[in-house]
Structures are given as structure tokens and as C-alpha cells.
Amino acid sequence: MSGEEDATVREPLDLIRLSLDERIYVKLRSDRQLRGKLHAFDQHLNMILGDVEEVITTVEIDDETYEEIVRTTKRNIQYLFVRGDGVILVSPPLRTT
Amino acid sequence: MLFFSYFKDLVGQEVTVELKNDLAIRGTLHSVDQYLNIKLENTRVVDQDKFPHMLSVRNCFIRGSVVRYVQLPPDGVDVDLLHDAARREARGG
Lengths: 97, 93
Description:
Chain A: Belongs to the snRNP Sm proteins family. The structure holds two protein chains of two kinds. Chain A has one helix spanning about 10-15, and strands at about 25-30, 30-40, 45-60, 70-80, 85-90. Chain A is mainly beta. Chain A has a single domain (about 10-90), classed as SH3 type barrels. By secondary structure, chain B is of the alpha+beta class. In chain B, strand 2 (about 25-30) and strand 3 (about 40-45) form a beta hairpin. Classes of the chains: A mainly beta, B alpha+beta. Chains A and B meet through helix 1, strand 2 and strand 4 of A and helix 1, strand 5 and helix 2 of B.
């Protein structure tokens, strides 16, 4: 490993830098969520993730009963570039029981 | 600059570009620019029945801003190199 790296956290992007090579949770527009290992990112929040699971959430409304049916579609992708303009938030993975 | 450099190194490899309108296009990465506009060759649409618009299109230019994802080839990712570059990148601004 080479070079001096400033380890102090000064700005929000530094917080994301701490998550490099760790699994993260990403909330995207259009009711999508990603969980994967963060390999790279930039100031636009463009990212490359590995071993990604994408979850798309849709709500259908039954014509007769008007009940809301929430559905999720999942998909797995090995390596994914994500364009930053779709990103809402980035976080360590949420604990779900 | 980080991802511009990354995609330049990826030229010649097969990728699948998923657009914000849900269209997914598979093709060979021909070129990329600073805006991450992408030129693909030998393209085919992933779900041809759902998106018959581009059946005869074999080469295309995709505006960077309409891209949602790019699915990358497994051997097109040098994880350590990316980590180092990202650590250096998002700083000073």
C-alpha cells in the first residue's frame, strides 16, 4: 500500500469513502434499492458495486377492492455501474430481522 | 474523471446498458466521453419482445444522462485499482 492518505472525515463524501470495500445499501429513484459491495465512487455518486441485489418495489391497486398490493422484484448482478443522478442515499446495510 | 478513465479501459468489452426508461441494450463498448456518453457496437436489445423499437439497430450513441446502470463483465473489474482510485478521487472540492 502506498502513499499518505488523509484519514480525517471532513465532508459527507469522506463518510462514503469509509465504506469502500464494504457492503452498503443504496436507495435509488423509482422505488429501487441496491445492496452490494462498494468498489468505487465519485463526487457525483456514480458508483461501481459488486455482488449486487436490486429490489424494485411496486404497488398495485386492485380494481374492485382498492387494496394496495405491494410487490418486490429482485435481481442479482455481479458488477454494476450506477449513475449518480439516480442515487438518493447511501448507507451501511440496514439490519433487518 | 475516475469513471471516464475506467470506461476507456473497458473499450472492446461486452456490456449491458440499462436506461432510465427500462430499455436494456447489450453491445460492445466502442467509446466513451467525459460526460459518460456511450457508443455501443453490435447492439441487441435485451427484451426484444417488449422493446421492438430497435430491432434493426446495430450501433448506437447513448447520452450519458439517460443511463441508469451499466452491467459490467466480471473480468472487467480490477477491484484493488478501483479502491485506490476512489480513495484518491473524492477529495478537495
